[in-house]
Structures are given as C-alpha cells and as structure tokens.
What does this fold into?
Amino acid sequence: MKEWMDAIVKPAAGPGLELRQVPVPVPGPGEVLIKIHKTAICGTDVHIYNWDPWAAEHITHPPMTIGHEYVGEIAAMGEGVTGLTIGQRVSGEGHITCHRCRNCHTGNIQWCKNTNSVGVDRDGAFAEYVCIPQTNVIPIDESLDEDVVAFFDAFGNATHTALMWNLVGEDVLITGAGPIGIIASGICKYAGARRVIITDLNDYRLDLARKMGVDYAVNTGREDLKEVMAKAGLTEGFDVGLEMSGNAAAFRQMCSVMRNGGKISLLGLGKPMVEVPMNDIICKGLTLQGIYGRKMDNWHQMSYMVQGGLDLHPVITHRFHYTDFEKGFAAMNSGMSGKVVLDWTK
Ligand code: NAD
Ligand code: ZN
It folds into this structure.
C-alpha cells in the first residue's frame, strides 16, 4: 500500500481547489479504506470551490480533501471490521452519524443530531482513497454501471424526496431541473406517476429532463404553467410537489397550483428566510415535509430501481479524468451541465 496519494484539496479559506499529494488514511478500528474508482461533483462541492458564504461558514478546517459522491472498492479494513471483503465494490453514506441519539436509535439516521459530513466536516472522497466507518459502507452490485453509482448520493436525495409520497397515478410538479430534479423526474415516472411536469428557467437543463422522460418541461420564465397543466389534463392541480430549486418564487408558484390536500416535499436549500403563501398552505390543507439527506433504505431502493430499468445515463453530461477537475467545476458553474463524473481508475 502506498503512503501518499493525489487528492483535490481546499488549501485555505478562499476560492479554488488544488490537486496535491496527501497521506493515504490508515483505517482505525471499525473503519474501511476505499480505493476510489469514480466520483461525481455535487452542488455542495461547487459552493466549496466558489467559497460562497455557506462554504465559509461550513469549511472550518482547511486544508482538507473535499467530495462525497463516489464508488470504489475496499482496499483495507481496520480492526474489528466484519462481513466485507477486500476488492468488494462499495459506495458510502456520506453522513457519519452518532448511533446514540433518539433518531439514530430508531433507524432515522437522516435526522441524527450529531451528523458529520464526508467532504465537509472531514476529509472527503475526491482522492485516490477515502476512509469511513464500516457502518457507512454500502455494498454495490457488480451489475451496476459505476458512472451512475458515482452519483448515488445525489440519487439518494432525489429518492428520499420523491418516494416520500404515493406516486402511482398521481400528477407531480418538480420545481428545479438541476441534476437532482432531473433524477427525481425519472424516479416519478418509474414509480408510476401519471403526469410529471418539471419547471426551470434554464433551457439546457429542461432538455436534459425531456431526455429523462418527463411529460412536460416548462420554462416558467416565458411559459404559463397553468396553460401546460390544462394541456396535460390536470383539472384540480398537482397531487404531489417536489421543491428542488431552493427558489422561493418557485415554491410560491408550487403552492398556487397544488390541489387541495396535496403533498409537498422540500429539498431545495436557498435563502434561509423567505415569504411563504400561508393562506394557500392552510386553506388548501397542504402537507409540507422537509427532506435532509437520505434514508439508509434509499440505498437499497436505488440499486433495485436501476436494476429494474430506471436509466439515469441522460443526466450525465461530462466525464473527465480527475486531473482535469477544473474543467468539471467550470461545466458545473456554467449551468450547462447535469452530472459531471471524474475518473480515478487511470
Ligand atoms: P441546482 O442548483 O443544480 O438546481 C437548482 C435548479 O433550480 C437550477 O437548474 C435553477 O436554474 C433552478 N431554478 C432557479 N430558480 C427557479 C425557479 N424560479 N423555478 C424553477 N427552477 C428554478 O441544484 P441540485 O444539485 O439539483 O440540488 C437541488 C436543490 O437541493 C439545491 O437547492 C440544493 O442545495 C438542495 N440539496 C438539498 C439537500 C438536502 O439534504 N436537503 C441535499 C442536496 C441538495
Ligand atoms: Zn445520532
């Protein structure tokens, strides 16, 4: 085993990232060392790259390795690790939870009160190796394409948000055709929704959503959503809403077109304080569910949906060698991208 490895590092407070040599982590008791094959760039990584106020608040200990969407194989195991094998293909749940709080005890790790995030609070996976606790290791079937498994973390956010509600025969509105919204549109069609309508202001991304199979991809900057609804045969409004833009205007528009008794799950993180249409929410009897991270069961659902035929390849728009990470971040920052996958195998 070598002692030094390449890693994409936030070197100091401020914009940019650097490819540099760092020590290969040594797995302690209960920990697993994973050799990285593929990684994907998340919006969070872009915040860290650009060093916006969120990054300045959350990345408190540079220099550190970033990244949390990955697939690889087990390279080494610390003392006491059982049930896994060297060379086994794995990904990892990025939220390292405490196993002690009330939510952890009841299996709701997504609500742990002591969460540490890989690639934010501790060294991440944009490196030749990453080290995580055994409890966070997710075995991945060899039948799955690694380019897709590379972004299972984001797929998990989409799965958690979409499968919060019954979708069979329902009409679904997704606000925000970012990578997660596009993936969610595929999940909703796969899960049996009648009509899936997605909105954005970005035509490039709306086109990607069409490739994923949405019924209508609507640019609300110039199209009237209510006209599209009439064309699609929606008479009472949407049954289910998935807010994936983090934009308050999109959320207000969503509330205005939900049917009475509709269900909304909220994933998009935007400005923390926004005006919300209280009268719509109350008088329509809407149910709102905040979504954070993903449930451990979502990892099983994701593998099985892909094996069952959910094809997520349309969301991948760029593939680069990891040494070209700057090109990957430029693509993400341009808005003209879906998922960007980095290859660490060569
Ligand atoms: P993204 O920023 O790539 O996509 C958001 C999309 O919303 C963009 O395409 C943007 O053009 C679009 N948008 C902006 N204003 C709009 C409007 N008025 N109407 C419709 N669309 C509009 O983000 P992503 O990576 O796809 O993630 C989706 C959201 O989920 C982000 O807000 C992200 O911060 C959040 N997120 C939350 C969690 C969580 O655990 N809660 C996890 C991951 C991501
Ligand atoms: Zn906990």
Notes: The pocket of nicotinamide-adenine-dinucleotide (ligand 1) is lined by residues 43, 157, 175-181, 199-202, 205, 220, 244-247, 249-250, 267-270, 291-293 (CB under 6 Å). The chain has a mean pLDDT of 97. The longest strand covers residues 31-40.
